[in-house]
Amino acid sequence: MVFMVDIAPTVPPPRPQCLSQPRPQPKLHRVSPHPHDLTQVTPHIFVWQHYDPDVKADLFSTALQADTGIYFIDPIPLTPAELVDPHLSRSPAGIFVTNVNHLRASTALAAAFSIPIYANEELSGTPNFPMAHWVGDGESFSPGLTAISIPGGPAGETAVYHRDNGGTIVIGDAIINFEPYGFSLPPAKYCLNFKRMQKSLRKLLDYRFQRVLFAHGTPIVSDGFLRLERLLTDRGC
User: Fold this and answer.
1) Which residues contact 187 (CB under 8 A, 6 or more apart)?
2) Which residue of 21, 43, 93, 159 has the fewest C-beta atoms within 10 A of its own C-beta?
3) How far apart are CA 80 and CA 74, in angstroms?
4) Euclidean distance between CA atoms 85 and 28, whole angstroms
5) pLDDT by residue (tens digit) across 197-224?
6) What is the pLDDT of residues 74-109, one digit of tens each?
7) Where are the domains of the chain?
8) Whole-Å CA distances, 50 to 56, 133, 205, 216, 234
């Protein structure tokens, strides 16, 4: 079951009770035993989340329907039912990891669907990314999907821009949207160079978008550009 809802910026998505299992699951060496919140943001965008007690925060993942298929952004482990849910398993095409800390279940999901992993070329040589396809700043790694490097954040920090349906930005750690911080920049201790990251975030305003999605935080589904512009101006970025 998938819920299609309008998500308020500060209200977590509703929790579906179950997900359908239309066919046998693909083989996967790491799956989650717990169902997640799977929410349809638009007809072509899904998000799901799970609370991680190790980091004491909700982890969010995104699935984007692009011209060539579905791309997963920072995927957390999926349950066997979710692996065969038609909203996630139809035409999988690739995975994008937004920084060095967000590999999560990418390796397992790539193996399950036989799809490539993409990441910022800055992470080339990193042990956890031996088979990644490297992407540069401003590079389109699939029609309609563009990588935007955010230097100064965690290593390899990259936002993904999806041009369709008014535009969507998916952000790793450079911006968050959860309590007690709200829609904000992360604490400086999580960044390699906080001041440089602040300046780098202005590049996002070169794109036009309605939605801002996060690796940590509730999606913003309308007026995303205006809200981000206001945030960066208020923070002196």
Assistant:
1) 181
2) 43
3) 18
4) 15
5) 999 999 999 999 999 999 999 999 999 9
6) 999 888 888 888 888 889 999 999 999 999 999 999
7) 35-234
8) 11, 27, 30, 10, 31
